[in-house]
Amino acid sequence: MAIAGAAHFALIWNHFYRGVPYLFDAGWYGALAHRNGPVLENPSAVVFGAIGERFYATHFSPGLWLLSLPSWLLPVSMPVWLGVLEGVKHAAIAGVVWLLVRELRTAGAAERRASDGAGAAWAAGAAGAALVLLAAFNGVLLACNVFPHFETWLVPLGLGFLLALHRGHMPAAWVCLAGAVSIREDMGFHLCGLLLVMAVLRGWRPWTAPREAETKRWLGFAAAGFAASVAALLIMRLGFPGDRAFARVYLGEPLFAHIDGEMLAGRLRLYWEERAYLWAPALVCGAWAAWRRSWWPLAGYLAFVPWALLHVLAASVYAGALASYYGFPYALALLWPLAGALYFARGERAGPTLGWAAALVLVSILAFARGNDLGAAVDRMRAPALGTREPIETVVRHLAEAVERSGPVVVCDAVAAQAPRLFDRTNLFHQAEGEPRIVAYYANGRQVKDARDHAGGLPHLHRVAGTSILVAAREALHWPGLVAERNDQTEAGR
Prior knowledge:
By secondary structure, the chain is mostly helical. About 60% of the residues lie in helices and about 5% in strands. It has a 5-stranded mixed sheet with strand order 1-2-4-3-5, sandwiched between helices. α8 (about 155-165) packs antiparallel against α9 (about 170-185). The longest helix is centred in the first third of the chain and has 30 residues, at about 80-105. The radius of gyration is 25 Å and the shape is globular.
């Protein structure tokens, strides 16, 4: 748990203070979950076009307000608080997996004593330890880390819900279900689908009444999750109109006009070449199901078939590629068998379940490496880069003050990501107007050409100490954390 939490805290720290951060969506997500109100306010830097001042027009996520509450009491900046939240989330994933492993080993204790030798017991223990250590670093979550996002809270909350339901802790189950729906409006649909698949595998059919009390309980929670998501959508539709994110990302305008054979073939080819971490574990689950002669190991993947179909047809290129966080439900599907075994393999030896589950996680990591840079994914979680936070935050504050005092100031998206509330769209390259007095950008960033176009006539160049952030200005700046640089571009123009 500590390893998962520390690694993902370092991931966010390094994203902002060592790398080139993203305004969309790490800076946006961080601002939403830092000192916000119950009706989430979008940071001014992202308010443009269909994205208005209220985030609930895009997603109904009051859970982010709850996550922001402690930040009002702590003297921490937005990136640091986001690091804390991501650390807690991934530590929670490792923690729930540990509880599930312990529950499985306890439930099969009698059978283990009766039939396992020392070697089998050691293997089961090793598989359980591997799961606890690696579950928070599975291939799906590694992909989600490219653009840190809040949707993966479904993983600890979903697993916690299933564990609480198994133990009969109904208040905890309701808290986890409500927490999941509060993170994003569609989470109730995801858990509803999983519970319905579980009920069907138990023998329930939609045209018959369930006979078992446990199946009735599953269906009750499924109905509650579905109703909660419908209610959230109604709140968005009636109270916060404007963005129409579902139509924008998935349906397209005109409806499905973007779909053709070439697009579908291209997406399927991309899934095969670069998204093996999504489908390879499903093949392992299929082998596991064939070995057991039971469908239950596949339940997580079966529940999210509609999600896959939705993205194959999506209007958005990024969503259609199932890139990064768009594959988040499969992080739950990947770990589902640990919870599913409590329901569908009761009293059985834990060793085979833990072995198969550990294989799923390992396969997902290896599959991620097939089409992605595993070394870079690990490197992002190395020890936090110390010494850059203070100069970056100091210079960003001075940039914001300059906006108020002397403007116009223009910054790249990555600089705006450090404090999205301190800038608005007129401070960003694509909507800036007039001749800027100050231009700030990352020398190794994604908008270098735009930056040089804006900064070409500014004679004074500075660097934020220890970073690749450059600040060009009409006058020499004497801000703490800035070091004067030779402006070769201006020299060449003389």
